[in-house]
Design brief:
alpha+beta, two-stranded antiparallel sheet, 8 helices
Amino acid sequence: MTTCPHCKSENNNFYYCHGCGRRIPFSSKPKERKKSSSSDFIEEVIDIIESKFISDVTVTTIANIGTISLDEISKEEGIILVGNDQWQEIPRKQQCACFFGEIFCISMISAIITMIGFIAGANDAKMVFQLYASAFLLLSFTEWFLVPYFSGFSLVSSLLYNCSMFTYGDENMKNKTKNLLMIFLFASIPCIFVVPFLYSLLKSRFSESYIPLALSISEIKYLKKISSGK
């Protein structure tokens, strides 16, 4: 018999607990029978009786786990279930990489648009900055608000890192107006200027506990997609 370390149920099933359905750790399984003075024949008879005639061995399946929460069991393995998809927590530095990857792409596209405007004749310094700021804010609003609001995923992080934005409560960002507006405001406006962007980027690289202000205030984090039920 084995005792489940989760719910303390007694089991003669050495693989899954019939009480809570969770896998029984290897350390909890009984060790091999110690050798005794009994003959090999008696040992074989005992093995046959244990394997063939014990009828109350429970084989755990999805159908007989009752009210067991699969979400809780999966979280013990570091997996988060959202709909038909499985997601996984990612390290802090990868969280920052997703965040700054979004901003970097927005900045590059805005710079290209500004360069085109400069070639077309917008060569005054004030006009150049206004063009860049307008393109940056428009692209930021599309990236931080419109795309995740309607689709539930973040465009750049999904393509580059297979990650998407979720709330701290592991809910998808689709239709989350408040959170998305907060990340748009605190990610876009400071990062129009080079100095705050570089300061945040360098701090994320050298600090072990730094989380971008926009992610903290908006309560948004990135999760990595590991599989799909579709």
